[in-house]
Specification:
heterodimer, A: alpha+beta, Heat Shock Protein 90, 7 strands, rod-shaped, disordered C terminus, B: alpha/beta, Rossmann fold, five-stranded parallel beta sheet, 5 strands, globular
């Protein structure tokens, strides 16, 4: 087996359904990946935009805070100058307003603390400290403003400057963070765009590859199937579709086609065998008819020929040789009897074949019958210079209950067969009995038969060779009749033979119940 | 005509005896052979004017004997009339193909057989 075959047997391809499932699953996964990438992209954009907006809001707050601080400082400086020159106190409303302003600044500062996160935490902390200190100084300035003789300190020398500086630092830091975030947004957008495009393109590519692979593999399977069905259709039923390369439906279909082909093949073989049998039976019948015609004509030839000749002799007025005349008439009678036997054989076989042959049982002595038959047939021995050996085991012989006529015909047929196929040899007729069976054997030292000839010799219309009838005469009916008679009498016939060494036909018949008188 | 020899080839003793006697009564000289091989030997030795050949013969059948006679320069001119109990049309065809000049079916119609013998003798003369 080739390695490729081994592999394809170990890993049969996916079934069509399996392929469709796999294909759909792959498409769904790709779709999910694309959607996920897209969602992640927009989420990232949102996050970045939020962070940017935060940075912008924080920068605005910072600017407002700076503006508020500047305005308040102007007011404080103006108030301080007024106090020194006019010594006019502030009314309660103005003080309230000033405290509210300071509160607003404080509020802004807290708001600013909510933005920026860790990146701005340190800067905010420092700004918070400075602004808180500055506000505390300004609050003190307003508290002491109306007090007499109070030394008005606008602020400590470096409070405002330091606050200003911290504000600027925070501002710079915020700008830096905003730029960073803007860059991050750009990068994120670029990245998600790239991922989306790559995912989309690769999805299309993978889908196309899957579609192509599926079309190809399915098409290959169907093409194999089509090729197989075409071969079946053209009559090549020994062809088999390779059903190992597909599992599932297509593999099943291939196997079903193969089974169909195998069954068709068997059916066609059976049909051919039946037709051959019928042809052979037909040919055998034709051959039988030809042989029957031949066999009927041979004695008729003698009968008609001798009769015409005797008629001529009577008519020519010469003296008639009475002895010769008698001999010629005997020949006519012999040929007539031969013809009768032949016709009887044909009728017997026809009766047997149509199931009309009757068995008539009687009690008789088989030993006496054998002696009688051998006596009657002794003229046959002289035809080929054969010698008869009669070997009857008289000690075991007794009466049997069987069909006398049929046993007589069995022995006659076997005997005349033996005479026909033996030249200058021995024909041995032997008989013996057991408690319940009679065995009669007719052995010859004649031409014998091969195994193939023995297998067919009992068939009706068959002789050992198709030209045996031509050489030895006979219609091929004798042994067929013998076998049928043996079967009808509940017995059997066995044959031992080898070419050039002779044949032994051994008939075994049941002795039958002799105590009860059977109807004749 | 009566001086000419007819060779009768027939294995069946009864039929051979009958035909010999009838042919002799009809004024022919008759010699006999019992099988195909003996027939060829007699044809070569006796050079008969016509051969009546049974086709179903022991040792060598009539068809083989006819074919062999047709190949033998010394006897191929001798006309052979096939005599056979095979009465089917293809048997006649087969006999003529084997080189027989005519064909007679058993049981023999004797006057017809005499005509056929005469025809063959005239044709070969």
């Amino acid at each position: 087996m080739r390695a490729a075959d081994a592999v394809s047997q170990l890993r049969p391809r996916l079934s069509l359904r399996g392929r469709l499932y796999l294909f759909s699953a792959a498409i769904l996964i790709l779709f999910a990946i694309n959607v996920g990438t897209s969602l992640w992209g927009s989420f990232a954009r949102n996050e970045s935009s939020l962070a940017y907006q935060e940075a912008v809001t924080a920068a605005q707050l910072t600017a407002e805070l700076e503006q508020n601080l500047q305005t308040k400082r102007q007011q404080v400086l103006v108030l301080a100058t007024l106090r020194e020159t006019t010594d006019e106190p502030l009314d309660e409303a103005a003080l309230e307003q000033a405290r509210a302003d300071l509160e607003i600044i404080s509020e802004r500062l807290r708001q600013l603390g909510g933005f920026g996160g860790e990146e701005l935490e340190a800067h905010y902390r420092r700004l918070h400290d400075s602004v808180t200190a500055l506000l505390a100084e300004w609050r003190q300035f307003y508290e002491q403003y109306n007090a007499d003789g109070a030394i008005i300190a606008v602020e400590s020398a470096r409070s405002y400057n330091s606050t200003q500086q911290r504000l600027q630092e925070l501002d710079q830091r915020q700008s830096f963070v905003a730029v960073q975030r803007a860059n991050a947004i750009d990068r994120t957008i670029t990245l998600t765009d790239q991922i989306t495009v790559i995912g989309f393109i690769s999805s299309i590519a993978i889908t196309l590859a899957l579609v192509f692979a599926m079309i190809r593999s399915t098409n290959a399977s169907l093409t194999r199937m089509k090729r197989g069905v075409e071969r079946f259709g053209s009559g090549d039923l020994t062809y088999r579709i390779d059903d190992q390369r597909d599992s599932g439906e297509i593999g099943d279909l291939a196997r079903t086609f193969n089974e169909m082909s195998a069954k068709l093949q068997i059916a066609i073989e059976e049909m051919n065998t039946a037709r051959a049998d019928a042809d052979s039976a037909n040919a055998a019948k034709s051959m039988f008819l030809a042989n029957v015609s031949h066999e009927l004509r041979t004695p008729l030839n003698a009968i008609i020929g001798y009769s015409e000749m005797l008629q001529d002799e009577l008519g020519d007025g010469l003296d008639i040789d009475r002895e010769q005349f008698h001999h010629d008439l005997a020949t006519i009678i012999f040929s007539g009897n031969q013809l009768l036997t032949l016709i009887n054989d044909i009728l017997d076989l026809s009766k047997i074949e149509t199931g009309k042959m009757q068995v008539s049982l009687e009690v008789f002595s088989p030993a006496a019958l054998l002696v009688q038959v051998c006596d009657a047939l002794s003229p046959l021995l002289s035809q080929n210079n054969n010698r008869l050996v009669l070997d009857i085991d008289n000690d075991s012989m007794r009466d049997i209950n069987s069909d006398r006529g049929k046993l007589q015909q069995i022995v006659t047929n076997l005997f005349s067969n033996a005479c026909k196929f033996t030249k200058e040899g021995d024909i041995t007729v032997s008989a013996s009995m057991t408690a319940d069976a009679l065995t009669v054997a007719v052995a010859d030292t004649g031409i014998g038969m091969t195994q193939a000839q023995q297998d067919r010799v009992f068939e009706a219309f068959i002789q050992a060779e198709s030209n045996t009838g031509l050489q030895y005469g006979g219609t091929g009916l004798g042994l067929a009749i013998v076998r049928e008679f043996c079967t009808m009498l509940g017995g059997s016939i066995a044959l031992e033979s080898s070419p050039d060494e002779g044949s032994v036909f051994r008939v075994t018949l049941p002795a039958g119940p002799t105590s009860v008188r059977a109807s004749a | 005509m009566s001086e000419q020899l007819i060779l009768l080839v027939e294995d069946n003793e009864v039929n051979r005896d009958m035909l010999v006697r009838r042919l002799e009564r009809a004024g022919h000289r008759v010699s006999t052979a019992g099988d195909g091989e003996a027939a060829l030997q007699n044809m070569r030795a006796l050079q008969p004017a016509v051969v009546l050949m049974d086709m179903n013969l022991p040792v060598k059948d009539g068809w083989s004997a006819c074919e062999e006679a047709a190949r033998d320069g010394s006897i191929k001119h001798i006309p052979i009339i096939a005599l056979t109990a095979h009465a089917m049309a293809e048997d006649k065809h087969r006999a003529l193909e084997a080189g027989c000049c005519d064909y007679a079916t058993k049981p023999v119609n004797f006057p017809e057989l005499l005509d056929k013998i005469a025809t063959c003798l005239n044709a070969s003369r």
